[in-house]
């Protein structure tokens, strides 16, 4: 350590030197040595860098190196993330996972082997042939099952989820398109008939209202008009009796 120790340091250092950098840190900061070329420089950080873990002591907080195969660790003997080519298992970094476990290349961890799980078979479908359920005697019926749990890389694969078998039905004729057309025509005629019925009812209603209006008009015409009051001057005119 260079004897020139300074108290006015930068970057979180409590004491430092021009040659070795930080010699001690301010409270709550971690002291770590960084190699630059052939020498090491002390720095003070709020948290330890990758490959180091922090330890706190009454006089100083330090960052210590993880094991060589650890990328990050909680303590020297407990890794939380492994370097490339290793798989994490119970705080250790392994090149090969133990029996009963498999390597997960996505998380780089040793995980339990997961086997496929499926539901029970569904009921058999109706007997069909070429998408129809009529017009044939021999056809096929199908049943299916759903995958509940997909397997992991080393897990038991899923079985077939569809099953088909031959079936025999009592032969029946398919409904002809013409018959269907006839039914549609009958429905259309019935609809037109209902509309015509409603139209006739509306016409009868209008005719009845028109007849009532004409009856009122005729009644007004046949009623006698009120007699006009006589002119008083004509009634008082003298009668000529000369002849």
Automatic annotation (TrEMBL):
Domain Spondin-like TSP1 positions: 116-170
Superkingdom of origin organism: Eukaryota
Region (Disordered) residue spans: 174-243
InterPro entries attached to this UniProt entry: Furin_repeat (IPR006212), Growth_fac_rcpt_cys_sf (IPR009030), R-spondin (IPR051514), Rspo_Fu-CRD_dom (IPR043601), TSP1_rpt (IPR000884), TSP1_rpt_sf (IPR036383), TSP1_spondin_dom (IPR044004)
GO biological process, any: positive regulation of non-canonical Wnt signaling pathway
Keywords assigned by UniProt, alphabetized: Disulfide bond, Glycoprotein, Heparin-binding, Repeat, Secreted, Sensory transduction, Signal, Wnt signaling pathway
Keyword Methyltransferase: no
One Gene Ontology molecular-function label: heparin binding
Location in or out of the cell: Secreted
Biased composition (Basic and acidic residues): 175-219
Presence of keyword Signal: yes
Stretches assigned to the R-spondin Fu-CRD domain: 11-110
Pfam family, one: TSP1_spondin
Gene Ontology cellular component terms for the protein in this record: extracellular region
Membership in a protein family: Belongs to the R-spondin family.
Role, per record: Activator of the canonical Wnt signaling pathway by acting as a ligand for LGR4-6 receptors, which acts as a key regulator of angiogenesis. Upon binding to LGR4-6 (LGR4, LGR5 or LGR6), LGR4-6 associate with phosphorylated LRP6 and frizzled receptors that are activated by extracellular Wnt receptors, triggering the canonical Wnt signaling pathway to increase expression of target genes. Also regulates the canonical Wnt/beta-catenin-dependent pathway and non-canonical Wnt signaling by acting as an inhibitor of ZNRF3, an important regulator of the Wnt signaling pathway.
Quaternary state and interactors: Interacts with the extracellular domain of FZD8 and LRP6. It however does not form a ternary complex with FZD8 and LRP6. Interacts with WNT1. Binds heparin. Interacts with LGR4, LGR5 and LGR6.
Protein name: R-spondin-3
UniProt organism field: Ploceus nigricollis
């Amino acid at each position: 350590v260079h004897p020139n120790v300074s108290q006015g340091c930068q970057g979180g250092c409590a004491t430092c030197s021009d040659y070795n950098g930080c010699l001690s840190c301010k409270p709550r900061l971690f002291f770590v040595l960084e190699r630059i070329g052939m020498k090491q420089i002390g720095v003070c950080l709020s948290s330890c860098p990758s490959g180091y873990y922090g330890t706190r002591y009454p006089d100083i907080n330090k960052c210590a190196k993880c094991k060589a195969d650890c990328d990050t660790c909680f303590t020297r003997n407990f890794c939380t993330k492994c370097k490339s080519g290793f798989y994490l298992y119970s705080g250790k970094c392994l090149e090969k996972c133990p029996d009963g476990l498999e390597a997960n290349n996505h998380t780089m961890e040793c995980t339990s082997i997961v086997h496929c799980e499926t539901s029970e078979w569904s009921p058999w479908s109706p007997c069909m042939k070429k998408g129809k359920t009529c017009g044939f005697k021999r056809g096929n019926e199908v049943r299916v099952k759903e995958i509940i749990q997909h397997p992991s890389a080393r897990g038991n694969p899923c079985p077939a989820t569809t099953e088909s078998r031959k079936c025999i039905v009592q032969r029946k004729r398919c409904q002809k398109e013409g018959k269907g057309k006839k039914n549609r025509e009958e429905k259309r005629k019935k609809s037109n008939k209902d509309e015509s019925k409603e139209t006739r009812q509306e016409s009868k209603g209008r005719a009845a209202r028109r007849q009532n209006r004409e009856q009122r008009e005729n009644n007004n015409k046949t009623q006698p008009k009120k007699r006009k009051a006589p002119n008083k001057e004509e009634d008082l005119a003298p009668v000529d009796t000369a002849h």
